[in-house]
Amino acid sequence: MSGSMYMAATGALNYQKKLDVLANNVANINTVGFKADKVSFVAVDLAENDSTLSDPSANTNLLSVVSKPVFSSGSMRFTGNTFDVALEGDGFFSVNTPDGVRYTRNGSFTFNNNGTLVTRDGFPVLGDGGEISINDVEDSKIVIDEVGNIYSDDKKIGALKLVDFSKPYELDKVGSTFFMAKDLNANEIEPDELKVNQGFVELSNVDAVRAMTEMIETLRGYESYQKIIRSLSDVSAKAINDVGSVQ
């Protein structure tokens, strides 16, 4: 593959990756607690990263796609559900999963058959003393105050484990609404001025209009690279078929 064709194909692939990320953002517009991914291009030195080019020293500054979550808050929606809670400010809920502790802004919770507070996926929500359980939850009046304390019939039974991290956040997205620290030894810190709102959920922070506009622009960029690839292919075919032929 010629250097020009390689660069055009790589450009098309990068635009396709960006389009996939944007499409995922749009698909999760209505996902509670979802954080949009922001896509950017970074320069890659082909001379150091690709040995297949015939003259790699002549091909530098090729762009590669990088996506990172945007941690701005989404708007809150009132549900009236006792076990729905939305965070106002910087911080996360802590959830115990089979792969370890994960962090989320999705506060749409419920209780399982054992009386344990869980996510909609069935993962236990962590409190300051571990998992949170309530006996006779259906017959109890549950109140969650602004700092995350949980009361059953006016008796405190625990508190949500709310954590934050140093900024800028070094967190990787796991699934749609879970995050994990890139550094497994990263220290959790106590959130500053974080408020818990019972009966609300935090909606996705995806800007629908902006996301659709970016998708259109990205699709046009992808189509441009496709045209370049077709043109280069036609030139190569013409050179192979016509150069050196006897007229």
Describe the fold and architecture.
This protein has two domains: 3-72 and 206-239, no CATH class; 76-202, no CATH class. Helix 1 (3-27) packs antiparallel against helix 3. The longest helix is centred in the last third of the chain and has 35 residues, at 208-242. The protein is elongated. The protein has three helices and 18 strands. With 247 residues, it is an alpha+beta fold. The strands form seven sheets. The chain has a five-stranded antiparallel sheet, with no helix packed on it. A three-stranded antiparallel sheet has the order 11-12-13, with no helix packed on it.
Give the gist of this structure.
The protein has 2 domains: 3-72 and 206-239, no CATH class; 76-202, no CATH class. It is an alpha+beta fold and 247 residues long.
Describe the secondary-structure layout.
Elements lengths: L2 H25 L9 E8 L1 H4 L12 E8 L6 E3 L6 E4 L3 E6 L2 E5 L4 E3 L5 E3 L6 E2 L2 E2 L10 E3 L4 E4 L2 E5 L2 E2 L7 E4 L3 E4 L13 E4 L1 E3 L5 H35 L5
Antiparallel strand pairs: 1-2, 3-18, 4-17, 5-6, 5-14, 6-16, 7-8, 9-10, 11-12, 12-13, 15-16
